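Review form for a predicted model. The reviewer records the input and the model, then writes brief findings.
Reviewer: anonymous (R2)
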Amino acid sequence: MTLKAVRAVQACDVIAVPVSGAELKEPYYEEGDMREQSRFWLDRCVAYGIAARAVPEAAGKARLFLPMPMIKEKAVLKEIHDRDAAQTAALLDQGKNVVFLTIGDPSVYSTCMYVHKRLKAMGYPTSLIPGIPSFCAAAAVLDIPLVENREELHVIPASYGIEESLSLSGTKVLMKAGRKMPRVKEILLRDGTDARMVENCGMDSQKIYRNAGEIPEEAGYYSLLIVKEKKNSGNGGERA
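Model under review:
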């Protein structure tokens, strides 16, 4: 966590915790002692686990659990996110300061933006605290540059079609590729692509795969691939 993020958690009244499981249907606000279900949600929230270790004060904050199901039905998601924003707004109206925890940087495919955009449109003061993007952290773990000189950088959600995107020049970052890994790996091996993957970057369960052949077909949700163009030398191909 950045120092600015730590200070925000220390100063806030309420911590908003996203819940991806289908068991939470409505936003749930809780102060004081936690019920068993709340502990279960907190244990499953990676962002909260990181914050709790870095900021001891987090344990004493009120909690706002917000349903954030991993589905693609736009109409259903809109209703859920509207309710999330409405419940958050109700706490803001009481003068409470709310911090929404997220992994990496909030501007990169973050669930917090669904609530942020709605609150901003409703006229509430909002702010984003930058974090360390997952692809920057993964490149550091792999000890490689993301881009150099005139190379382009493309950040691609791997849960959608990626064939056309992989033909782009420069470095391609494939985010959250776990569910699509068999197809992703098939394409990478077919094209002889120079690819590396980090699974659960920065966590105790972190795993590193340094070529497409090593990448397993079953990988976790937090699996990120960095795909490089192969550079040619006078003696033939050379890995980037």
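Findings: The chain is about 30% helix and 20% strand.
Further findings: The first helix runs from residue 3 to 11.
Recommendation: see findings above.
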